[in-house]
Write a structure and sequence with these properties.
homodimer, mainly alpha, Tetracycline Repressor, domain 2, 0% strand, globular, DNA-binding
Amino acid sequence: MPSRLEKARQAPDSMKGRILEAARRLFGEYGFSGVTTRMLAKEVGIDISTLYYHWGEKQDLYEAVMADLSCEIRGKLREIERMVRGAALSHRLEVAIEVMCDWLFEHPEAAKLMLSSYMGKSRSAPDTHVPIKEHIANIAVAMGLALDTAHVPARANARVLTVWNSVINFTAGEDFFRPLLGVNRNEYRSVVKETLKFILIPAFARSSAA
Amino acid sequence: MPSRLEKARQAPDSMKGRILEAARRLFGEYGFSGVTTRMLAKEVGIDISTLYYHWGEKQDLYEAVMADLSCEIRGKLREIERMVRGAALSHRLEVAIEVMCDWLFEHPEAAKLMLSSYMGKSRSAPDTHVPIKEHIANIAVAMGLALDTAHVPARANARVLTVWNSVINFTAGEDFFRPLLGVNRNEYRSVVKETLKFILIPAFARSSAA
DNA sequence: AAAAGAGTCCATCATTTGTTGGAAATTTAT
DNA sequence: ATAAATTTCCAACAAATGATGGACTCTTTT
């Protein structure tokens, strides 16, 4: 039996990887309690016990999904940090919004999983939050809102969180917001990016000029 | 047996009202699938069948919760509209943020319910979204982003949605964000308001001056 | 006081759900 | 080719869950 504490990424064509991928999609769509082991097995096209064989209990699988996601987010943020290092603040923000939106629009489950991780308790106790705290602190420093990641003022963190949340929201909620705006997929994506830049950049540009 | 299509608000001391209140709290906290009829009954301190007697199936109760919430939101938005009618745009925004935050901080389940209504599908089909579309359009007109509620550009709606979502997020996610900022309840509330005003007002003030 | 009605609870049922043991099938090693 | 290990499926179980019928209690009406 394969280890359940496996940290390495799963090959997407392996059974273990296929299960993880389906779990991510379904957990993102219906939440932890909204997904049954039978739904998962059916989605992958396998028997329930095969699922248990690879990942153990439902909660273990959920935790694996969150750990995997967390790892991916961390990588993405580092990538962005590398891209904008040394640039002007408004340019940094613009690139960050652009890149995060592009990625999250292609992985809406990721945004949904993070949202339910922030907002939702579950009586079945998968308290596996994505460890976003460090990332927020890093971004705050990168944006010049703080001098050192160990001492970031609450105000600075709150400002970063506002940006972060706005991106997560529009990507996670596309199915609900897009009909509301009456636009197609491509239009939605460009309107969202435009709006986020329009709203978020001026505030920070001003504070950086001051 | 009382009608299940009852539209009027329930007296908060009646059994039907107490059940609705508990349902709102629990559905907000754990989501539709995360709440069992037994949890609900226990929360109110009654038997399961009493619950069924008053509200029928679980889905009916959930829909009642959402309808009630929707009604309350509508009232709150009208109240805000009345308060800021005729004022300058930046003042309108400030008051709207202030009042909505105050109310949602006192009713965090409301914010959580709306979020899960936007983001989450459920296989048990309570597709009862809060009809936010009209409200967003009204706000857009009130903010001078559109001339008439029937023809609001997607851009305008998207901007209003950004504001709306930011407020919802910080109020719904207090339990997660507050430890992250390392502040107490009162500090959190004031930091959130300050941050929202700091970020959201400049963008609109600029566009209004142009 | 008696009857009618409304509200609550107990016991129970049928399904769903998480989970497991063990047999069959498939792959890998010898 | 044969044995060993790995992977998959079938069948089943116990607990949890949504839902209901009927008895009991309390209030209101006549």
